[in-house]
Amino acid sequence: MMALGLVAQLQQGFGFTALAWQIVMGTFACVTLAGPTRVRRLAPPTSVSPRQIRIWTICAAIVGSCWALGMLGWALHAPQQLVLVAIAVSVTYTVHAVASCFFAPVAVLAFAAPLLAAATAAALLTLDGSVRQITLVLIAIHAWAAMRLLMKNWTRFAQLIDREVDRGRLSSMLHEQKEIAERAVHLKTRFLASASHDLRQPMHAISLYLDGLAELDLPENIRPVINDARVCAHDMNDMFRSLLDMSRLDAQQAVPTLSTFSIGPVMSRVEKEFSPLASSRGVRLKVRPCTDHVYSDPVMVERIALNFVSNAVRHTTSGRILVACRVRGRSLRLAVYDTGRGIPQSEQQAIFEEFRQLDAPQTRDPSGGGLGLGLAIVRRLAQALRLPVTVRSTPGRGSMFAVDLPLVHVSRAGPQPLSATSRLAGRLVVIVDDEPSILLAATFILQTAGCTVISARSSDEAMKSLTGSVRVPDFIICDYELHDSHNGADVIRMLREEFNHDIPALLVTGNTAGGEAGESAMELGIKVLHKPLEASVLKQSLEELLANEGAMK
Q: What's the pLDDT tens digit per position in 237-252?
């Protein structure tokens, strides 16, 4: 338009007004060329303020008005060909304005309206006959098309903005809900961690009492009741243990502690824990001895084995269960076979999901339905240890669950330990726990095994009970969480310093979510047992302490 105006002005004579118009239009042209860089630095349209829109509209109106006034100033005296070109350029720029600035439709209208008005006036005043009519029709068509395009682009733009706003709002809501869910999981984990100690205390005492009663000479009409109560207590212990294990795994607090160990004690503990339960349900449990060594986390491997056998006992109503190990190249396969109902091929991966139980409610074992967490825990533990888990099952014939452990070749030479009864009889055991029921139950269990027991509820009481004693205790069993100024680890240190002897000890805790008990036990070089404990596990742990002490001697 500046070039067209310059040609017309040179033909008519170039005055001050024409020079001023060229300077103003040149300034607008420079600002327009620098516009894209400036616009890219602006905030998104959703953040543009109404004040900025008003400024753009005023500037667009000034540019359009200046354009229109300049064109009318020289077009009235210019040749028709030059006027037609000026009209075409003006109409074309309205379409460009619609295409590039549709996000500010009011500014587009403020710019386009003077151009279309000036083009229409120039056509009416300077053109003749049919040329005028055709030009007016073309201006009208371009104006109508430009307005439709503006409305269409604005509608799409508004929809995109609405979607972007909705997406941002949904993203914000999703982030907020995620934080709420994470806080809920964290609170659940903290609740289980804080409540586990209190929940385990009564179950620990009940298990010890029932196991102790089962070893006494009872009337025949009482023994079935005791056995049924032991089954119920075992199921409750299993459910507590599963829930708390899942809490630890969810909190990512189950960190493997790898070492080389014999699989034999694991097999022995599995047999002792589940033989009474299997017998009470009419199932024969057979555990083949194994003396091979593996490299893994002994606690996690034992938990995997216990869950395998617990799952087999729970879903086998008749027949037998076999627990055996077999060397496979560089691995030792720990497998559990049962003659239960079996699992369809389509469900053999689903059984490892949390709270997944395939049995229908009417066919589920009423004495121990479980929570459907045992195999889910196995999967989590196996993933933490990076061990493959194998499942084979045929509906109506039974199932096989196995885990492959890294095999370690260790010399098996050495003396065989004496029987448990002869080794525990006459031993002096110090038990420290602030729960009277647990003290009585543990004392009862150890006394039935032939031990001499000194029980105390605090560190001070334990020290007073042992004052003047010339006999060094054979064992210390101490609860970690004491209602005292000292914890269980402190009590063990104090007793060891008192007798100037590294007394074998067990640290017992009901809190599986915290790592303080484990860290203290590692510093002392002792084992941690988690409540609720069964009598067989407690006595087996004492046997292992005796075996280790004998090996060191």
A: 766 666 666 566 655 5
